[in-house]
Design a protein that fits this description.
The protein is mainly alpha-helical. The chain contains four helices and no strands. The chain has a domain of 35 residues.
């Protein structure tokens, strides 16, 4: 058996909570650790694939050029919007 050191406040909280659940502190901590391990193992692990390993359709989408660019001083695209209106409505 090993020992885990925790603060007095944390231990007192664990003791009260375990008592309310009709468990010993040891049983409650073991139950908590087991639940964490189960949840961690159920989480799906995703990893980013290199572009070369993606489906050809996705590779084509990723190669598409960006439709437009926004100037650094035009964060909310106000200049682009005004340019669009001028062209559309011949202003």
């Amino acid at each position: 058996m090993e020992t885990i050191a925790i603060s007095t406040a944390a231990y007192n909280y664990a003791k009260e909570y375990a008592k309310s659940q009709n468990l010993s502190v040891d049983d409650w901590v073991v139950k908590l650790i087991n639940r964490y391990i189960e949840e961690s193992s159920r989480k799906k692990r995703f990893k980013m694939l290199p572009v070369e390993e993606l489906a050809p359709e996705l590779q084509e989408i990723m190669k598409m050029p960006i439709a437009g660019t926004i100037d650094a001083d035009d964060i909310n695209a106000e200049k682009e919007r005004m340019l669009y209106y001028k062209e559309k409505y011949l202003l």
